[in-house]
Enoyl-CoA hydratase-related protein
Amino acid sequence: MSNLDTLQVDDSIQLERQGSILTLWLNRPESRNAMSLNMVNAIQQVFAHIAEDTSIRAVILRGKGGHFCAGGDIKDMAGLRVEAANAGSLQPYVDFNRRFGAMIEQVDQAPQTVVAILEGAVLGGGFGLACVSDVAISRDNAQFGLPETGLGVLPAQIAPFVVKRIGLTQARRLALLGLRFNGETALKLGVVHEVASDEAALEQKLAETVQQIKRAAPLASRTTKALLHRTLNEPLDTLLDDAAQQFAQAVGGAEGQEGTMAFIQKRLPTWAMDEQ
């Protein structure tokens, strides 16, 4: 079990833990939680710290001040411009952009169930972060979009994750037109899974999602998420062979035996009762 109390993170994020649920708040409300390099590094630090911690079953990503994330921090870009000029090289831009992509990939591959609560601005890098969540719940009036091309740049690191989320056809339209759209449209596109009409409904949907996460066996959830990721990249026959081995281990393991017994006895399994 990781000890979050010993983890020193930048104040661009805040951590709250309730039992097996960790909430990671993006905490730069003055800039609509625009993503600075410090924030990117802090998010990576947290996910690296908890990667092997099976006591943390879900990570909730939220933004302070009524916004999720308005994209990259323009102030950081100005600093990079000076750094690149001094170095006589574009490498500072490359390093900054690639670091963001590494963070997005890390969140995407996290063994925990990642839930994104989307309010206000969900733009650029914030849109990318939403696209790597396992469960996305949005306010109806949240504003989504990929504004990069209108700024003369491109959604370099998030593009693959957007395509995986909504498909190439829709991703091309959104990225090339720089469209803005609300939570209802995000639901139709498949960016988000549920939409709430007010704050109370948003909190209720989050609470219901957390309860469902707690009903799922911790190790089975982690193994299932890893298996789902592999379906996109591996040959089917070898993947199914390996999945059969994992199934057998699960059935014969502690969770499989407890889950089966709980079903027969018409009760909650122990992992669901621990936090009742």
Notes: The domain at 4-214 is CATH 3.90.226.10 (2-enoyl-CoA Hydratase; Chain A, domain 1). The longest strand covers residues 13-18. The two ends are 21 Å apart (CA to CA).
